[in-house]
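TL;DR need C-alpha cells for one chain.
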Amino acid sequence: MPSIVRLEPRTHYPEEQGERHGEMQDGLQARLHDPLWLLARQWQFGEFTGDDAGSPAAAHVVMEHAPISRYLPGPLPVNPAQAKANAIDYSPMTLPLEAMVEREPVAHEGRQNFRLSAEAGLHFLRVLEAQGLEPQATIVCRNVFLTAYGLQPPTGEERRNIDGESLRFLNIMATRVVDGAKLYAKLAPLRQNRRLEALFEEAPTIGIPTNVRARVVQAMTMWLDWSDGLFSQTNQQPSWVKERLEYAFAVSGNTSGGEVLLSAPEYLEGHLDWFSFVVNPSISLGASLSVKSETSTFLPTPVTFRGMPASRLWEFEDATVNFAKVDANPHDLARLLLVEFALVYGNDWFVVPLEIDVGSLCRVSSLIVINTFGERMLIPHTTKVDGAASPWRMFCLSRDPLVANSAEGDVAALQSQDLFFLPPVLGVSLESAAAEEVLFLRDEMANMAWAVERVVESPIGRPLDRFEAFQETRRRQEQATPQANPDGQSQTAASVIYGLGTSVPDYWVPLLPVQDGASIRLKRGALPRIQDGTIEGIREPQGCILDPGHELFLQDEEVPREGARVTRSYQYSRWIDGSTHLWIGRRKRPGRGEGSSGLRFDVVEPK
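>> reply
TL;DR here they are.
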C-alpha cells in the first residue's frame, strides 16, 4: 500500500526546559532591524512603481435638471399626433408615478360598493350636523335627504345574486343612511356648474327651510371636497392593457438636447425604477421646456466597503469579510472578477454627492477634478470615451428595441447616453389583502385554458371567496330541490346515465383559442348554467379583471404552462409633500402550475 505523507508547519511549540522554540516567530515578527529587507519587500510589492498622480482634492460639477411634465397612459400609438393629443400634464411633486399609472375608478360601470356608499352617506350627515343647525332644522334636513337619497334595499332579482354577508348588511342599513354614491352623482354636476342652490328647487329638498340653506350648501361643498380627496381615481384612458395583463405608459421631459420620451411597456410587479423605462425618440408628447442648471463644489470622498483591502502595508485589515471563503468555481468568472476588482482597484474610487430633483432627467454637463498638485482635469462621460456602444452601462437608459436598429434609435442613443432618470416612485407603501384574485392556468385534460376567479369584491367591498359561495349555492339548491341534477344528465330507468357534458363551477371562465392573423389569442368565453336539466343562462364573470360586458382577447403567451396570478388590491402611501394617497392597483405574478376543471363530454356513468 502506498503511503500518503502530508507536511504541515508547526504553529505551536511546546516549552522545553523553560525555553520557547520560535522557528516561525522570527519570520512572522518582521522586525525593523533589517532596513534592506524592508526595501526589498517594498520593491516586491510594487510600492516603488508609481506615477506622479495626486489624490482628488476638489470637484466642480455642472449639472442640469429637466423635470418630466407629460404623461401618456396605455401603449404608444402608431400615430404620433394621437399620442400628443392623449397625453396629459403631470407634476412629479404632487403624485407618485405608481399611483398615476395604477389608479382606476373604485366603482366600475354597473357596480356599486354599498358599504362605501353607506359610510359616505353617514359622513355627510356628520358634516351636516357640524354646521350648528337648530335641532329641529337638523331633523328636517336629515329626513329630507334620507327620503330623496336613502340607500334602497335590493329587489327580488338582485337578492338572488348577493351573498349572505352583503344581504345582511343591506337589510340593516337600507332606508337608514344616505346613499353616498347617489348623492354624489346628483351634486357633482351642480357644483361643476356652480349651482348647488338649484338642489332646493326640486322635491323633496324644496322643503328645507330657507334660513339654513346657506349652511346646507356649505356642508355639501365640504362633503364633495372630502369625497374627491378620499380616493385617487381617474376617468381617463386606463394604463392597464387587458390583453397583456400589465400596465403600459410613457412620460417625457424636455432637456437642453430636445424632448426625451421614456416608455414603460411592461410594468406589472408594482414598483417602478429607472430600469423600467426605455428611450423612444419617434414620438413627442409636447413636454414644456424647463431646464435648471446648477454648479456645485465638493470634496471627493474615497469609496469604502466592508472587507476593503488596507491602503498601507503595515495596517491591520478588518477581518469581518474573508475573501478566502468566497465560494467561486474556476469557471465562475463574474465572481472571480468581482473579487479581483475589490482587491486590486478598491481604493481607486471616489464619491461626489449630488442632489437631484425627484422626477427629473439629469445630465452632468462637466466634471472638473482638482488634485493635490493643483492640476485641473476635465472628466468626460464614459460614452464619450468609449462611444455610444460602451460596455459600461450602469444607470444608462436603454433604447426601445423597436427602434434600436434604426436612424431614430441612433438619435436616441446620442440623446440619452449621458442622461440619468430619477423616477418619482414610492419607497414603502401599504397594500391591502387582495380584493380580487384571478388565476390563469392551462388544463391539459380538457385541452383548454381557464381564468379562475378565486376572490372577487362583494357588493359591500369585502373579499368574497368564489369557491365558498359556489358551495353555499349548491347546498341551498340541493335543499330546495333534492332531485335536481346539476349536470343535466337524463334520468332514465337504465343502469347507466348518459350526460352530454359535466358541469364546471361558475367561477371557472373558459378561454377559447381564436385565430388573429398570424397569431393565436385566447378569447373569454362562457359556459351555460344548467339547472334541472334546462339551460338557465350564460355565466358571466363577477370581477373587474376579466372585464365583464366587453370582449377580452388575451395574448396566448400571457397564459404560460406555469400560469399567471393577477390580483387587485388597495394601495396606500404618503408622498414627499406629506399628502396621502389611496388607490386601487393590479399586480401580475407567476401562477401555481396547471389545473384541472373536470370538464368532460359524452359521459356514461353508472346510475
